[in-house]
Structures are given as C-alpha cells and as structure tokens.
Write a structure and sequence with these properties.
The chain starts with 12 loop residues before the first strand and ends with a helix. Helices cover 31% and strands 22% of the residues. By secondary structure, it is of the alpha/beta class. A six-stranded mixed sheet has the order 5-2-1-9-22-21, with helices on one face. It has two domains: 13-46 and 85-122 and 275-353, FAD/NAD(P)-binding domain; 130-272 and 367-413, FAD/NAD(P)-binding domain, CATH 3.50.50.100. Bound molecules: flavin-adenine dinucleotide (FAD). Flavin-adenine dinucleotide binds next to helix 1, strand 2, strand 6, helix 7 and helix 9.
Length: 481
C-alpha cells in the first residue's frame, strides 16, 4: 500500500496517527469536505475502535453496555483506510511513519500530510507494588476488568469467613481525585452498594471505599464550591477521603499512605492524571517539556520559535494547543476540546489542500459535567451556572449522549438506559472472561510425548445389552440425568 518514497502521488495521502477522538473526528470531517480524488485518508490505531472515555465510568458500573461506548472504525470511518497497528517511529522529515502490526514485521508508510492524535497514557510514579497491583482507567478493557473484579471480590467475600480476607477483598482504593477518578469511584461505589443488597452474607458497612488525592482539593475542573459539595456527598456515602496525601507503597496489596495510614486492599485503581503518548519521543516532531507536540492556534505543528513545520498537524491530549480564550495557557486535555480540535483539523486540512488559508481554533469551555452514580451528579456550565444532584446527572447523560459519535451508538445507549430503568441494572460478575480457556485447560488431557512407547491397545469390551429396552419406566426415572 505505501507508495515508494520520492514517487509523486496523484492524490495526496493524509496519514492520521491514532483513531481516538482527534483521529476519528478529523478523518471524518476531512472525508466529508473532500472527495476521494482530492485526498486519500489513512488512520492507524492498534484498536479497531474509538473509545468515548467520558462514558467509561458508566460502563464500569454497568449502566451502559461497554460495546456501546466504542465507535467501530470500519463503521464510523466510511471512505477511509484503517490500518491496525502501533505507530513506533515518526520521521516527518522523510514523510514516513513506522507501523508495528499486532502480528508480523514492522513496515513504513509514506504520506504527504500528517495528523497526530496519539492521545495520552496514565501518568504513573515509581511506587513500590503499583505496577503489579494497580489497574488504570483509560480504556474500555480496564473498565470491563474493574467491574468484573469488584463484583467478583464481592462474590468471593460472601463465601469467605476469614475476617482479614474479607476486609482485604472488600476494600477498594482509588488514587487521583480528578474527573476520571471521582466519576469512576462514584459509579463503582454506587454499583457495589447496589450489588451488596442482594447478598445476605455481606453488610453495607463491610464495603470500604478510599480516595487518595495528592492536592488539597478534588475536581480541579470545577469551582471550589462544587468540589467541596462533591466531597461532602462522597463523605456522606461513607467514602474515606485522604487529601494532600500520597500513595507510598502497595506491595502485595498492603497499602501505605504518606500520612502513615496502612491497610490491605485487593483493588487499587490509578487515576492520577495522564501524560502525552511516550511514542512521540521516537519522532522528529518538536515537543515541549511535557512531551506534547508544539502547535499554534491553527493546530499546525510548530518549532519552539513558532516556525510552522510543513504538512504536520496535531491536537488532543498529546498536543500543546494554545487556548485563545485564556492567553498564555493551553487547552486542557479533555474530550470537549479534542473532538472540536479534530473537526477543526479536518476543516483546515481541506482548506489547505484547496490552497485556501486555515483558520484559528477557538473554543470557550462550556463547563464540566460529572456523574457520581445513579441519579447523582455535579455540573458547572458556562463558568457560573452550578448544578447538583439529579439535574446534574440528567445534564451529564444528555450532554454526553449527544457528544457520543454515530447515531447508532447514541440510540443503543439511550435504549440501554431505558431498559435499565425498567428492568434494573445487571450486577453479575463475568470474572472468567479474563481467562476463558482456564476450564478447558484443566479438562484437557496432555498429549503423549512423540517418542513414548505406544500404549497397548485394549480389546474393545463387549457392548452392554440394550438396557433402555429392558428397563422398567420406574428404573429409567431413577437414573441421574
Ligand atoms: C475515565 C475518563 C473519563 C473522562 N471523562 C471526560 C469527561 O467527562 N469530559 C471530557 O471532556 N473529557 C473526559 N475525559 C478525557 C477525554 O476522554 C480525552 O481528553 C480525549 O479522549 C482525548 O482525545 P485524544 O484524541 O487526544 O486521545 P484518545 O481519544 O485517547 O485517542 C488516542 C488514540 O491513539 C491510539 N494510540 C495510542 N498509541 C498509539 C500508537 N502507538 N499508534 C497508533 N495509535 C495509538 C489509541 O488507541 C487511541 O485510539 C475522560 C478521560 C477518561 C480516561
């Protein structure tokens, strides 16, 4: 598929790195603006779908089917080529990118225009035990695993009488009090309490949820007043909150906090922020101190001195995009900006490919909405309007279902919510999803080694007489099924 370097292409190729929010929206918008004879578009991503992360907490809580928080590329990106694999090197000077497929040898793809939407990864710290015990909360696989793990621990604890073990299984720690952490904690705690109502052997008081946050407040995205309200609501739900506190260690699930508090927990969820995708270090694109691609307000990649790097665009969590409404600051890494920036890159690229001038990206933050479990939420709209409780929860669902890409997914989510309202949400753990072959492995008979002497062939036993015909109806009924 890649054209040999140097050979001119009839149709310019736009290569989009990452099929997430920026990647999906930029490719879709560009395809809408330009026909196939004007631009060929290729999207590269290791996953065959884009994940709408704001719905991950609800997917973890079982309020949304996890399949519905993703938009499959092949359905959402009509008229766009999709390559499944990791981008492992970017040589923009040579207009080529190395792609490592899930299986097979790495290969290079050449291009004429580059869009970088590689997003971010969890920002972790070298805390003893974290890599072995922690779980992130950035993708749909983690949301499914967390849900199954929490419900699985409740199932197992209900059949365990060792008090130490039960305490450990029923203690859930969330590290990081930003939007993702608070929403994940609020939703998962709500689900766990709902699930426990069905267990005679577990009391609500046995569930222990702990939030650890390094700064003196939670939800920096909203006002202090709303952050304080959220804190109060979470405390009313008996969630233990440690502010200005750090996780010091969690070796073998033994949690040690910087304030000397110690306890055991089998679940440690790490939601303490993100950093730009580290694969950008393997590129010749200009990066800032935080590893983000440097951009101007047109979303063009620039050198540190502001000189435009030709044919390169970037946006989203992996880019430092100037916020024109807050001079001197950068757009925060959120979906609200990422999807608008993606659309803007699509528009600007279409303009440039038709020899017109690109326009500046400018978006005033419309606010923030967070769900804290069924019928609970907080929202701050247009800076001043503060909403809490049920209304905020409705706003959260309404805003995000409209922002969710594709009509197909919007409809599926809305139908799912209606179903849950009528039939109640499902709280069953499908723990063996994570090792579905375990049972078959245990049942399998190991193959005999090749050079082992052949087992003697036993003479076939004589067939038993046709019992069924001889049995009386009473004898037949007495046989186990
Ligand atoms: C739990 C959670 C809740 C959130 N809630 C909100 C919210 O309520 N409101 C809000 O505005 N924002 C929210 N966000 C933030 C928002 O989701 C992100 O800011 C946004 O998705 C960033 O878009 P992006 O395109 O930069 O990155 P992404 O959407 O993450 O896309 C990056 C893509 O790059 C791909 N990729 C990664 N590495 C490679 C590679 N080597 N090669 C090729 N492809 C690669 C990934 O698979 C992914 O598809 C939340 C995030 C999380 C994790």
């Amino acid at each position: 598929m890649p054209a040999p370097a140097g050979k001119p292409r009839k149709v310019p190729r736009v290569l989009v790195l990452g099929g997430g929010t920026v990647g999906l929206y930029s490719a879709r918008r560009l395809r809408r603006r330009l026909g196939k004879r004007e631009a060929a578009i290729v999207v590269v991503d290791p996953r065959p779908y884009m994940t709408y992360a704001p719905f991950l907490p609800e997917a973890a809580a079982g309020s949304i089917d996890p399949r519905n928080v993703v938009a499959p590329h092949r359905r959402a990106l009509k008229g766009v080529d999709v390559l499944q694999g990791h981008v492992t090197q970017i040589e923009h000077a040579a207009r080529r990118v190395e792609i490592t497929p899930v299986e097979g040898e790495p290969y290079w793809v050449t291009y004429d225009h580059l869009v970088v939407g590689l997003g971010s990864v969890a920002r972790t710290l070298p805390i003893p035990g974290l890599a072995e015990q922690g779980i992130g909360f950035k993708n749909v696989e983690e949301a499914i695993a967390l849900r199954n793990h929490v419900l699985g621990r409740i199932d197992v604890a209900a059949s365990t009488w060792d008090p130490e073990l039960r305490r450990r299984m029923l203690t859930f720690v969330f590290v990081g009090g930003g939007f993702a952490g608070i929403e994940a904690l609020g939703e998962v705690e709500d689900m766990a309490r709902y699930a426990v109502r069905k267990y005679k052997q577990i009391e609500q008081e046995e569930l222990r949820f702990v939030l650890v946050e390094g700064s003196p407040r939670i939800l920096p995205e909203v006002s202090e007043e709303l952050g304080g309200y959220t804190l109060e609501q979470l405390r009313k739900r008996d969630i233990e909150i440690f502010l200005s506190t750090f996780l010091s260690s969690c070796v073998d699930g033994h949690v040690v906090l910087s304030n000397k508090v110690e306890f055991d927990a089998e679940t440690i969820v790490w939601t303490a922020g993100v950093k730009a995708n580290p694969v950008l270090q393997q590129s010749d694109l200009p990066l800032d101190k935080l590893g983000r691609v440097i951009c101007n307000a047109y979303l063009q990649v620039t050198a540190e001195d502001g000189t435009v790097v030709a044919d390169a665009w970037a946006a989203g969590d992996c880019a430092a995009v100037p916020d024109l409404y807050n001079p001197g600051k950068f757009c925060p890494p959120n979906a609200q900006h990422a999807l608008r920036e993606g659309n803007h890159i699509g528009d600007n690229l279409a303009l440039v490919l038709r020899s017109a001038q690109p326009t500046e990206y400018k978006h005033r933050n419309v606010g923030a909405v967070a769900s804290l479990g069924m019928y609970k939420g907080v929202a701050q709209m247009f800076g001043r309007i503060k909403v809490r409780g049920f209304l905020a929860w409705v706003l959260h669902r309404t805003y995000h279902v409209f922002a969710m890409p594709t009509f197909n997914r919007k409809l599926r989510i809305a139908v799912g919510w209606t179903g849950s309202l009528l039939l109640r949400r499902e709280v069953v753990a499908l723990g063996s999803l994570h090792d579905p072959r375990a049972e078959f492995r245990a049942a399998s008979v190991p193959a005999a080694p090749k050079d082992a002497p052949a087992a003697p062939v036993a003479e076939a036993p004589a067939l038993p007489p046709q019992k069924a015909e001889k049995d009386s109806p009473a004898e037949r009924d007495a046989r186990p099924a």
